[in-house]
């Protein structure tokens, strides 16, 4: 995400694999939220909403004085807290009251509006959710990050490829091939931000060549790598 002038901070969450983040916008400006396989619960100006997993960059326009506090779930962990398949939130921004009881959301919103540390309050509310974490989440994520083919992963966990695809939709919002592509994009951007040459980025991140990297970046973000690197984090 980048804006003309904004302050962004994050810290590890008490929720495994999640982060608590805050964004304060000092001046208005356009931004671009890149797909990362994650889901966020966000508090902004007295409202609570969920940002589902994106398949392409999501445009965002910052407003002067805007303050956002949020918890970002790691890939696959959000559905257990929100009690909805990730695929139902894909590419959407949904009010939390559409997923949780209205009375509960109102109480939490009031507590957040009055809190000094809104991230801590939101994190605590999510930790209190009675949930059953899917044991496959970390295993599948590790296999995808390692670059294993979907067929091999399916065989390893005892599912057909079709069953694994459905499991991926529920956990991540899309199948494992798309998840792999999105995670690889973020790895490539991190390498490029460190100053690595594009050809080396492509080879290190697992692209066939630099042209493959360029196509994927444009397909998933809508702009070339050079434009993404100009944006402030």
How would you sum up this structure, described in words?
By secondary structure, the protein is α+β, with helices and mostly antiparallel strands. It has three domains: 5-127, Jelly Rolls (Sandwich), CATH 2.60.120; 136-176; 178-230, Arc Repressor Mutant, subunit A. The chain is 44% helix and 21% strand. The protein has ten helices and eight strands. The protein has helices at 78-82, 102-114, 118-127, 136-145, 150-157, 161-172, 176-193, 198-205, 210-221, 225-230; strands at residues 5-12, 19-27, 29-33, 39-44, 47-51, 58-62, 67-73, 93-95. The longest helix has 18 residues, at 176-193. It is globular. The mean pLDDT is 92.
CATH class of the largest domain: Mainly Beta
Which bin fits the share of residues in helices? 40-55%
| N to C succession of SSEs | EEEEEEEHEHHHHHHHHH
Number of helices: 10
Give the tally of structural domains.
Answer: 3
Distance N terminus to C terminus? 6 Å
Judged by helices, strands and strand pairing, the structural class is alpha+beta
CATH architecture of the largest domain: Sandwich
Question: Quaternary state, please?
Answer: single chain
Strand order in space, largest sheet: 1-2-7-4-5-8
Sheet with most strands = 6 strands, antiparallel
What is the number of strand segments? 8
Strand content: 15-25%
Which topology of the largest domain does CATH recognise?
Jelly Rolls
The pLDDT mean sits at 92
Shape: globular
Radius of gyration: 18 Å
Point out poorly predicted stretches: none
């Amino acid at each position: 995400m980048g804006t003309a002038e904004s302050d962004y901070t994050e810290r590890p969450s008490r929720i495994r694999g999640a982060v608590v983040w805050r964004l304060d916008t000092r001046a208005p400006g356009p931004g671009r939220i890149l797909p990362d396989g994650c889901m966020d619960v966000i508090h902004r100006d007295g409202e609570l909403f969920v940002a589902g997993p994106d398949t392409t960059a999501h445009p965002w326009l910052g407003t002067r004085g805007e303050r956002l506090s949020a918890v970002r779930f790691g890939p696959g962990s959000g559905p257990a807290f929100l009690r909805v398949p990730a695929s139902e939130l894909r590419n959407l921004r949904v009010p939390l009251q559409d997923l949780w009881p209205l009375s509960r959301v109102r109480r939490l919103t009031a507590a957040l509006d009055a809190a000094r540390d809104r991230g801590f309050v939101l994190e605590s509310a999510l930790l209190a959710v009675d949930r059953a974490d899917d044991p496959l989440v970390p295993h599948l994520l590790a296999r995808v990050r390692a670059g294993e083919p979907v067929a091999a992963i399916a065989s390893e966990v005892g599912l057909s490829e079709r069953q694994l695809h459905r499991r991926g939709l529920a956990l991540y919002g899309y199948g494992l091939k798309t998840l792999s592509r999105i995670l690889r994009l973020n790895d490539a951007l991190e390498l490029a931000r460190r100053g690595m040459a594009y050809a080396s980025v492509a080879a290190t991140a697992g692209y066939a060549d630099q042209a493959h990297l360029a196509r994927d970046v444009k397909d998933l973000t809508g702009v070339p790598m050079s434009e993404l690197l100009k944006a402030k984090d």
